[in-house]
Write a structure and sequence with these properties.
Layout (H helix, E strand, L loop, with lengths): L7 E3 L5 E8 L3 H9 L1 H7 L6 E8 L6 E8 L4 E12 L3 E8 L8 E10 L2 E9 L3 H7 L4 H16 L2 H10 L1
Helix pairs in contact: 1-2
Length: 170
């Protein structure tokens, strides 16, 4: 997977990966696109040749979420967990567990959205159980995958469909 350069990566601690992306959209639209299944389905499709087959999210503290993708060759990739914190439209924390054993244990992802002059900065921090697990995750194409997904989200938000959704949020 090739990177577009739109996602900034840093390592704020021995167990964390921080990914930052700026969107030309208001925070309430970005948050809705991250937490509403009908909007997730419009941009969260996965790598070329893959489709989002399962998209479920109960967007509240204690709510569960589940995503599963299917590749053209029938290969599957699934992810799910529980929402630990939910403060619309600025913050969501959830644990995550992949169906496949990509890494040991669970990760905990924290999404924080801030808005300035109609642009939203998304900060996604994923905390792992150890430095060894974090470093192992960095060997995967995961960062490129996150960047590709956020590129898809930015493209969707620039379209008329997203503008219609934004009008509904007002």
């Amino acid at each position: 997977m090739q990177r577009s350069g739109t996602l900034q990566l840093s390592l704020p601690s021995d167990t964390e990966i921080l990914m930052t992306r700026v969107f030309d959209a208001p925070r309430r639209l970005v948050f809705a696109a991250l937490t509403r299944p009908e909007l997730l389905r419009r941009w969260f499709g996965g790598p070329p040749g893959w489709r989002l087959d399962v998209c479920e999210i109960d967007a509240r503290v204690g709510g569960k979420y589940r995503y599963a993708w299917v590749g053209a060759d029938g290969q599957t990739m699934g992810l799910g967990g529980t929402i630990l914190e939910f403060v619309a439209p600025e913050r969501m924390v959830a644990d995550e567990q992949y169906d496949q054993a990509w890494y040991e244990g669970q990760g905990v992802s924290t999404i924080v959205l801030t808005e300035e002059a109609g642009r939203t900065t998304l900060r996604l921090t994923v905390r792992y159980e150890s430095k060894a697990v974090r470093d192992h995750v960095l060997t995967f194409p995961a960062v490129a995958g996150v960047e590709m997904g956020y590129d898809n989200l930015a493209e969707w938000m620039a379209g008329a469909d997203a503008q219609a959704e934004l009008a509904k949020l007002d």
